[in-house]
Write a structure and sequence with these properties.
The protein is an alpha+beta fold. The protein has two domains: 27-113 and 123-171, no CATH class; 176-341, 3-layer Sandwich (Rieske Iron-sulfur Protein). Helix content is 34%, strand content 13%. The protein has seven helices and twelve strands. The protein has helices at 29-32, 34-64, 80-106, 124-140, 147-167, 218-223, 225-235; strands at 70-73, 76-79, 190-192, 209-214, 237-241, 261-265, 277-279, 284-286, 293-295, 301-304, 316-318, 324-326. The strands form four sheets. Strands 3-4-5-6 form a four-stranded antiparallel sheet. It has a four-stranded antiparallel sheet with strand order 7-8-9-10, with no helix packed on it. The chain has a two-stranded antiparallel sheet with strand order 1-2. Helix 2 runs parallel beside helix 5. The longest helix has 31 residues, at 34-64. It is elongated, with a radius of gyration of 32 Å. The relative contact order is 0.10. Bound molecules: FE2/S2 (inorganic) cluster (FES). FE2/S2 (inorganic) cluster binds at residues 268, 270-273, 287, 289-290, 292, 305-307. This is Cytochrome bc1 complex Rieske iron-sulfur subunit.
C-alpha cells in the first residue's frame, strides 16, 4: 500500500528510501493453512474463556475463603482471601493480554506497507482516509468475523468488571458502635509499640513523644492475624510528656495525665491516617495526609486542617509496679469523624 493510497492529496511527501534492506516477507502458517488459523482461534478463545472463569473465581474466593485464613509459603505467609483474589485477577488479566498478543501475531492481517513521511496535520481527505483505514483494520482483525474470539473476549471483559463491583462490599457497612470499642480497658499497660516494653513515667523526658500500644495487643498476633490488625489499627496511641505548666487541661480531665504525660489516639479524626509529625516546641502534632494539626497541650484540639474534632484522649494512671496503665478505655470513638455518632 503506498502513501498515495492513503490519500495524502496535496501534502508534500518525502521520497522513500529506494532499498531499505528489509527481508522478503514470509507468510505465517496461519495465513496459508486455515486449519492452523482455526487452531490458533481456539487457543485464543480458550485463554479468554479461562480469564472469564478466573474472574468468577475471584468473586467466589471473596465469599468462600474466611477473612482470617492464612497461606504459608515457607517462611512467608499471607492472607489467603486477598492472595487468592489477587492471583485470580492477575491470571485473568495475563490471559487476556496473552490471548490478545496471540490473536494479533497469528491471526490479524500481516501485510507490509510503505508509509511516506508528511507534514503533521491532516487534510479532510486524510482524516476521511484514516477513518476508512480504521474500519478496514477492524474488518481485517476478524473481530466481526471470528465470533468465537469476539464472544469469549466480550464475556471475559464483562466478567472482569464483576470483581470490582463485588469488592465494593468491603466499603461497608458503617462501623456503628465498633469504633467505641478498642482493646484498651482499665488497668491495661501502655507499651512502646516497637520494643513492646511497658512504659514508666520516668522513661519519658519533657518534650518526648513515643508511639504506644496496649499490652494486650501482641498476644492477639498469634491467635488471629486479622483480629490483631483490626485491634492495632484502632488502639494505636501516642504518649507525650509536656511541662505541666504548659498544659491547658479540659474540664473533667484533671486526673487523666501523669506528671505532664498525656495519651491520645494516634488515628486522625479526619479520615483516619496515623498522625506522626510532632513539633516539640509548639506541642503540635501534624497528620501527614491532609495537614490537620492538633495541639496536644490543649486537649489535642484541632488548630488547622480538615479534622472536625480533637484526638480522643486515653485517661492514664500508674499501676502498683509504677507502669503507665489506662484508667479505662476511650470515652469516645476513635478514628474518622464522618460516621454517624449519635
Ligand atoms: S486524615 Fe488526617 S488530615 Fe486527613
Amino acid at each position: 500500500m503506498s502513501g498515495d493510497d492513503h490519500g495524502h492529496g496535496a501534502v508534500e511527501l518525502a521520497e522513500p528510501i529506494a532499498d531499505p534492506g528489509i527481508e522478503p516477507h514470509e507468510h505465517r502458517i496461519t495465513d496459508i493453512d486455515p486449519k492452523a488459523a482455526d487452531r490458533v482461534e481456539r487457543q485464543v478463545a480458550t485463554m479468554f474463556t479461562l480469564a472469564g472463569l478466573l474472574a468468577l473465581g475471584a468473586c467466589v474466593a471473596y465469599f468462600a475463603i474466611p477473612r482470617d485464613a492464612v497461606l504459608q509459603f515457607g517462611p512467608l505467609s499471607g492472607n489467603a482471601n486477598n492472595m487468592t483474589i489477587g492471583l485470580c485477577l492477575g491470571l485473568a488479566l495475563f490471559l487476556i493480554g496473552a490471548g490478545a498478543i496471540q490473536w494479533a501475531k497469528k491471526l490479524m492481517v500481516d501485510t507490509e506497507i510503505v508509509e511516506y513521511r508528511h507534514a503533521a496535520g491532516g487534510t479532510p481527505e486524510q482524516r476521511a482516509d484514516i477513518i476508512e483505514g480504521f474500519q478496514t483494520g477492524a474488518a481485517e482483525s476478524g473481530f466481526g468475523r471470528r465470533k468465537l474470539i469476539r464472544r469469549s473476549l466480550i464475556g471475559a471483559m464483562a466478567l472482569l468488571g464483576l470483581p470490582a463491583i463485588v469488592l465494593l462490599r468491603d466499603l461497608g457497612p458503617a462501623p456503628g458502635r465498633k469504633l467505641y470499642n478498642t482493646i484498651w480497658a482499665q488497668g491495661i499497660r501502655v507499651v512502646n509499640d516497637v520494643t513492646l516494653r511497658p512504659i514508666k513515667p520516668s522513661d519519658l523526658v519533657v518534650g518526648q513523644l513515643v508511639n504506644g500500644a496496649p499490652a494486650n495487643l501482641a498476644p492477639l498476633q498469634e491467635e488471629s492475624p486479622v483480629e490483631y490488625q483490626n485491634a492495632k489499627a484502632k488502639a494505636a496511641v501516642i504518649v507525650v510528656r509536656i511541662a505541666p505548666n504548659e498544659i491547658r487541661t479540659p474540664a473533667g480531665r484533671e486526673n487523666w495525665g501523669i506528671d505532664g504525660i498525656l495519651c491520645y489516639s494516634k488515628i486522625c479524626t479526619h479520615v483516619g491516617c496515623p498522625i506522626s509529625l510532632y513539633e516539640q516546641t509548639t506541642h503540635h502534632v501534624l497528620c501527614p495526609c491532609h495537614q490537620s494539626t492538633f495541639d496536644l497541650a490543649d486537649g489535642a484540639k484541632v488548630i488547622f486542617g480538615p479534622a472536625a474534632r480533637p484526638l480522643p484522649q486515653l485517661p492514664l494512671a500508674v499501676d502498683a509496679e509504677g507502669y503507665l496503665v489506662a484508667q479505662s478505655g476511650f470515652t469516645e470513638p476513635v478514628g474518622p469523624s464522618f460516621w454517624e455518632r449519635g
